[in-house]
Write a structure and sequence with these properties.
Number of strands: 0
Strand content: under 5%
Radius of gyration: 23 Å
Shape: flat
Order of helices and strands: HHHHHHHHHHHHHHHHHHHHH
Mean pLDDT: 83
Helix content: 55-70%
Largest sheet: none
Length: about 450
């Protein structure tokens, strides 16, 4: 069993000042604003998690605000300490804890999400094939599994993961589907080989990371149906490896996918599953989860909650946890400040489609991200500039919007990304609000890029 010790120092300090959990949260929000001039995403439920020991190491800004409110000189006085995800050895049922669900039930639950199912439907998953068996059966053909699997095989899977991630991040998810899936079939066969106990968790993490790259590449290319089996394979591998960071990454990707498809209820369920054990997620993972949560809230028109989730993302990336050397390098673990700003800009962009009053905030956020373009990949820059151009054409300066649109088209030239194509379609629609030769020329160029008659 995983033993969580209550934080009696924190609860004792709160009671000494005769504060309820809600009053402490309010005082921390006020202190946070005085110290950092930013909104803090903390409420009574968050304080409860701190006192129950579910969260043992809030980020640096939160710790500073709590210390000020409770008059503590050090974090230790309030019982805060850092617990690395791999410092705790789990046994029994809790080792596979997924919010009180068994692993198989969890995978079947996730299989139903993003495909039109709802959590409230009785018998969710009934009649579905075992997603693990199905994916492995498909992935393992043709060829026989190797007899022995060693560290060199794991390193090859990791190398392939980085190679293909860089490939589709530069040229779009549709640029390398065939070789990527051939590599995934080879990697999945490794799971049926014999490996030492010390290597097998690393093997599962490596194969799961490659499945994540394949799945997200398909989402970017618009192949949603083939993306889901990749995500399910990745989740199976994450569960076998007890890799909480990989698990959260996959669920976050699935949440993004369902936002793209307009399934906001499923997206909310998936991002909440991703955050079940956020305390075990390494690096910038908590920042990424908060940013994607912000995007869901923005798409739903919940601007206040969206901005709180954005603030949480900014806090997390300003004070990231140590990365996990066993996990394959990815944006999820190593997101920069510019990348989180870009994701937060996407969230406000989605909010602006429902509430135009948020357009200036979205514009500022996207500009801040693009100003650090050297840290963003070509695909991310193209998407960010396309959305910024759309905002300018809808709510700002026409000439600036036209100039940005041409930048986006240059960056996106030859890129095989359905998500970028959808943004360019939205940009093309925004041009219809304007007239004049420059707009007509831009519209013609967009029609050519979109292959419209």
């Amino acid at each position: 069993m995983v033993q969580r010790e209550p934080n009696r120092r924190l609860s004792g300090a709160r009671r000494e000042r005769r504060l309820t959990q809600d009053q402490l949260a309010q005082a921390v929000r006020e202190a946070y604003w005085r110290l950092f001039e930013k909104e803090a995403a903390i409420d009574a439920e968050h304080v409860s998690k701190l006192e129950r020991g579910i969260i043992t190491w809030p980020n640096a800004r939160y710790r500073a605000a709590v210390r000020e409110v409770l008059g503590a000189a050090t974090d230790a006085e309030l019982g805060f300490y850092y617990r690395h995800p791999r410092d705790t050895v789990d046994t029994g049922a809790d080792a596979r804890e997924v919010d009180t669900a068994r692993r198989d039930e969890f995978i079947l639950l996730v299989t139903g999400l993003g495909t039109g199912s709802c959590l409230g439907v009785s018998g969710l998953g009934a009649g579905l094939p075992d997603p693990v068996r199905e994916v492995l059966a498909r992935a393992a053909e043709p060829g026989d599994p190797p007899r022995r699997v060693g560290r060199t095989d794991v390193e090859q899977v990791r190398f392939a993961t980085e190679l293909f991630r860089s490939w589709w991040d530069r040229y779009g998810g549709g640029a390398c589907r065939e070789p990527l899936f051939a590599q995934l079939r080879w990697a999945a066969r490794l799971l049926r080989g014999q490996a030492e106990d010390a290597i097998r968790p690393e093997l599962y993490s490596a194969v799961g990371s490659l499945a994540q790259v394949a799945g997200w590449g398909d989402v970017d290319a618009g192949y949603h149906d083939t993306a889901l089996p990749c995500f399910h394979l990745g989740l199976y591998c994450a569960e076998e490896a007890r890799d909480w960071t990989l698990r959260a990454h996959l669920l976050t990707n699935m949440s993004q996918q369902t936002v793209d498809r307009g399934q906001l209820d499923d997206a909310t369920s998936l991002i909440e599953l991703a955050q079940v054990r956020a305390d075990r997620v390494a690096g910038s993972g908590p920042a990424m989860m908060s940013s994607i949560h912000a995007r869901i809230l923005g798409a739903a028109g919940r601007v206040t909650h969206c901005r709180r989730a954005m603030a949480a993302a900014e806090d997390h990336v300003a004070d990231p946890r140590p990365t996990d050397e066993h996990c394959v390098s990815s944006l999820f673990q190593r997101a920069s400040v510019a990348e989180i700003a870009l994701y937060n800009g996407h969230a406000l962009f989605d909010a602006s489609l429902r509430n135009p009053a948020t357009a200036p905030l979205a514009t500022d956020q996207l500009r801040a991200a693009i100003a650090s373009a050297s840290t963003l990949s070509r695909r991310r820059r193209a998407v960010g500039i396309t959305k910024l151009a759309t905002l300018e054409l809808l709510h700002g300066d026409r000439d600036e919007g036209i100039a940005l649109a041409h930048q986006a088209l240059d960056l996106g030239d030859g890129m095989r990304s359905a998500r970028l194509t959808e943004d360019l379609r939205r940009l093309r629609t925004a041009t219809t609000r304007h007239t004049g030769t420059p707009v007509t020329a831009l519209r013609q160029q967009l029609d050519s890029a979109l292959k419209l008659d």
